[in-house]
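COMPLEX REQUEST
Ligand: heme C
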Amino acid sequence: MSRRTKLALAAPLALLAFAAGGCRIDMHDQPKYEAYEKSSFFPNGSASRPLPAHTVARGSWHDAAEAPRLTGFGADGKLVPSIPVPVDRALLDRGQMMFNGFCAPCHDRTGNGRGMVVRRGFKQAASFHDPRLLTVADGHIFDAITRGFGQMPSYAAQIKTEDRWAIVAYVRALQLAGHAPLADLPAEDRQRALAAGAVAPAAEPPIGNYDKTFSGSPIGGGDPAGRSPNEEPIAHGSSGAANEHGDGGH
Ligand code: HEC
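STATUS: Structure written out below.
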């Protein structure tokens, strides 16, 4: 290519580049009004129109009587103490599936708060075996799913209200499993637990003391309950302990 042809090609190319640059409209600034953007068109100076009186956002209307089931809060504004829908095997199975899909990545399938996302650096998720969480109202767990909690995002958009209660029921089942005394198991399961290495009644630790089974060290911090692996678990000992937090009425 001669020097001349090179020049002849370069000039229009440069012009094209210049022209294209000049015409650029950023995609983030499109020629449309965004919510509550300024506008000289309406007297109040806002592009968005004021809502007519008594407007209700789609999906947000419900009878006061339905509030507990839909929001996790009772008419008195307090968290509902126990799951306001019938708890049966089908609900638990559903809860297990949803929990393993949505919660286990952070909270671990056993609920110890050391799921894979946490082990890869996300903030330490709560352990459901934390003494405080054994006694919170069922509505609190529902509300954490609905609105998120601290670093945990809201799952209201992904998980329907019925499924949220199913998950709450399953979290309660995990807690019960994690702290049940060996003596509370049906004979057959007790045999299996003993065969699998559970310690016999005298020095009996709860079968599912999940904190002891974790061998790696979490990147995101220690056990939020601050328990050392050898420390006595909370609900251990008295035979009625499992019932205190386990079937509190549901
Ligand atoms: C992306 C990770 C992540 C997922 C997924 C997640 N959580 Fe969490 N969760 C957290 C973290 C982190 C905390 C601790 C929040 C904090 O202290 O900032 C937490 C805290 C909680 C708490 C404790 C609230 C308290 O009083 O301390 C509950 C209950 C809870 N999560 C339930 C759930 C349930 C049920 C699901 C599934 C629907 C779920 N979480 C999914 C990360 C997650």
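REMARKS: The longest helix spans residues 3-22. Residues 212-250 have pLDDT under 50 and may be disordered.
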